[in-house]
């Protein structure tokens, strides 16, 4: 946190632009900064209404308690459900697709269970680069005899240890999983008892997937019909089959559809409700699962309780003492639509409160995002380091980092874990939850908590499936996996979901769902003959909003980085290893180095 080799210094004092957008940021006291932010939020709400505000929560260091406070501020103080976070561009598709089929948007199994699986189907997921701890479990499973399948356009580390690599064409995931379902049903590999008593929607599901024979899917995916059939048979052969996926399937226009079909594959084969089987959307940021759990989403309160449900709304209104909106909020990726593309000022977003996020570096279409940030009337950035988004901010509020405050995170497999303050923060900084509470209080809605445990206790009392996960229980067990219904010691949490085929849907029945395959909206053409696939590597995490600030990690992947290209494409274009190239799309360009490799298929970079 205080490493002298950090390339960007810590934010240590609050700063505001006292004289408008074009004036410089000036260091001020906390009292002045809080008043400045509160006054502007209040004016914008009074002039343009509650829905003129949007909050972006952090899935990183602040923790679950701060996430709860962020969404409470947005809903109770600003009066809107316009709250979102980075899951929107990573695993929001996992939440949506899983909830529509099995009722829960999280891993159905625990990470330790992976090593006892008999078949592991990795689709769009390279654990070696994304989650080394999960990768070790996969390797242990292989050592115990598990059959590993990897579906990925690249030859990744996971592909190299796999027994079968399905090197499909990028963007063809729906066609592949539909075809796997086709084979499982056509060859009568389904678990008839499980499907009969624990699922519904089979006829509608079959109407879609019956078209996706392996021969037809092969024309879309580039795979052989034989490999598709073998994969389906192998997956259906075990009652301890696991599907793991990452952003290789969720960061597509049909991400939700792919997730729905992955969940349906597990239901068709009866691979739910026991150890070492089920589905695993393995989350990215350290607390992206927790930020979803805390309700930092436009359609749900904490605990995945729908904002459109009158009984749920009444419960939160009583607890928070204010009238709440039942209108689903605006998604983070739609901010440009409601700023630069919205002609009616009454429908625009006029205030944007960003905590621990860097949309000017990490959101799609950066040119449009940066223009959007300049057009928003009032932007507040709350973070630990100066970043690209702070350049567009009207107020910059310095927060504590992990290790400088107490709280808890949620692991990918639903485990609540305590984090503790171990060092004193340097500079005039405050915990995220305290900053937001001060703004709320200055706006006339008192929010006073003495510590994070008070916040946590308020949250779990409102969320039945989290109620038993007390600080004391986390302390005693090390981790508590939700659902945990009872505060008593007898309820230790839940290692795997959907026991005995009882799903988290309203009637306890799983819903078989999928959709027809639709090709990507943008395909290769004469002007842009190559397709781009973004990847995660060990040296840098995603778009380097964090790791790019560390000199040691930057030295691992020296600027200006590299783009992997097939040997055939390099020969065709006359490119050599290390040569500087310009990678261009209709949305922008970047200069980087050419890296010829056999890991990438011809026509892809």
From TrEMBL:
SUPFAM superfamilies noted in UniProt: ADC-like (SSF50692), Formate dehydrogenase/DMSO reductase, domains 1-3 (SSF53706)
A single GO cellular-component term on record: membrane
GO molecular function, one term: NADH dehydrogenase activity
InterPro entries for the chain: Asp_de-COase-like_dom_sf, Formate_Dh-H_N, Formate_DH_asu, MoPterin_dinucl-bd_dom, Mopterin_OxRdtase, Prok_molybdopt-oxidoreductase
Keyword field: 4Fe-4S, Iron, Iron-sulfur, Metal-binding, Oxidoreductase
Gene3D superfamilies: 2.40.40.20, 3.40.50.740, Dimethylsulfoxide Reductase, domain 2
Annotated organism of origin: uncultured prokaryote
Name of protein: Formate dehydrogenase H
Ranges for domain Molybdopterin oxidoreductase: 10-441
BP GO annotations: formate metabolic process; respiratory electron transport chain
Gene: fdhF
All residue ranges annotated as the Molybdopterin dinucleotide-binding domain in the record: 530-605
């Amino acid at each position: 946190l205080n490493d002298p080799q950090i390339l960007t210094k810590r934010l240590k004092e609050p700063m505001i632009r006292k004289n408008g957008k074009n004036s410089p940021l000036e260091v001020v006291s906390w009292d002045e900064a809080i008043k400045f932010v509160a006054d502007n939020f209040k004016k914008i709400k009074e002039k343009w209404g509650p829905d003129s505000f949007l909050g972006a929560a952090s899935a990183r260091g602040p923790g679950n308690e701060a996430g709860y406070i962020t969404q409470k501020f947005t809903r109770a103080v600003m009066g809107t459900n316009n709250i979102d976070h980075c899951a929107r561009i990573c695993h929001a598709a996992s939440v949506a697709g899983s909830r529509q089929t099995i009722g829960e948007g999280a891993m159905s199994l625990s990470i330790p269970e992976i090593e006892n699986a008999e078949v592991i189907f990795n689709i769009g997921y390279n654990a070696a680069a994304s989650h080394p701890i999960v990768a070790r479990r996969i390797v242990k499973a292989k050592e115990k005899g598990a059959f590993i399948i990897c579906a990925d356009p690249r030859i990744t580390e996971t592909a190299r240890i796999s027994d079968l690599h399905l090197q499909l064409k990028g963007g063809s995931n729906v066609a592949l999983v539909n075809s796997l379902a086709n084979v499982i049903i056509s060859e009568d590999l389904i678990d008839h008892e499980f499907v009969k008593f624990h699922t519904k929607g089979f006829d509608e599901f079959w109407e879609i997937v019956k078209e996706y024979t392996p021969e037809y899917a092969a024309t879309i995916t580039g795979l052989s019909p034989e490999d598709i059939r073998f994969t389906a048979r192998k997956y259906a052969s075990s009652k301890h089959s696991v599907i793991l996926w990452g952003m290789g399937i969720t960061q597509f226009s049909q991400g939700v559809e792919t997730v729905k079909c992955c969940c349906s594959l597990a239901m068709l084969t009866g691979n739910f409700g026991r150890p070492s089987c089920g589905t695993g959307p393995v989350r990215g940021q350290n607390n992206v699962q927790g930020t979803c759990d805390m309700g930092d989403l436009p359609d749900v309160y904490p605990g995945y309780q729908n904002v459109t449900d009158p009984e749920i709304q009444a419960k939160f209104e009583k607890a928070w003492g204010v009238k709440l909106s039942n209108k689903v909020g605006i998604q983070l990726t739609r901010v440009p639509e409601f700023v630069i593309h919205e002609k009616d000022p009454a429908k625009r977003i006029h205030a944007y409160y960003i905590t621990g996020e860097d949309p000017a570096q990490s959101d799609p279409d950066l040119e449009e995002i940066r223009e959007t940030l300049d057009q928003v009337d009032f932007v507040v950035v709350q973070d630990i380091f100066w970043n690209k988004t702070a350049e567009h901010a009207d107020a910059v509020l310095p927060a504590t980092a992990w290790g400088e405050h107490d709280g808890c995170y949620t692991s990918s497999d639903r485990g609540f874990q305590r984090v503790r303050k171990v060092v004193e923060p340097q500079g005039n900084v405050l915990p995220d939850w305290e900053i937001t509470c001060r703004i709320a209080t200055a706006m006339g809605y008192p929010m006073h908590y003495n510590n994070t445990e008070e916040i946590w206790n308020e949250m779990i009392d409102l969320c039945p499936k989290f109620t038993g996960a007390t600080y004391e229980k986390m302390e005693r067990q090390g981790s508590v996996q939700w659902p945990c219904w009872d505060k008593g010691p007898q309820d230790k949490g839940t290692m795997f979901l959907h026991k005995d085929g009882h799903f988290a849907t309203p009637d306890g029945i799983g819903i078989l769902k999928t959709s027809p395959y639709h090709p990507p909206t943008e395909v290769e053409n004469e002007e842009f003959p190559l397709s781009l696939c973004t990847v995660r590597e060990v040296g840098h995490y995603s778009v380097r909003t964090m790791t790019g600030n560390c000199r040691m990690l930057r030295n691992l992947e020296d600027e200006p980085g590299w783009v992997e290209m097939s040997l055939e494409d390099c020969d065709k274009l006359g490119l050599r290893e290390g040569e500087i190239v310009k990678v261009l799309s209709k949305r922008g360009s970047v200069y980087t180095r050419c890296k010829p490799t056999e890991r990438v298929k011809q026509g892809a970079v």
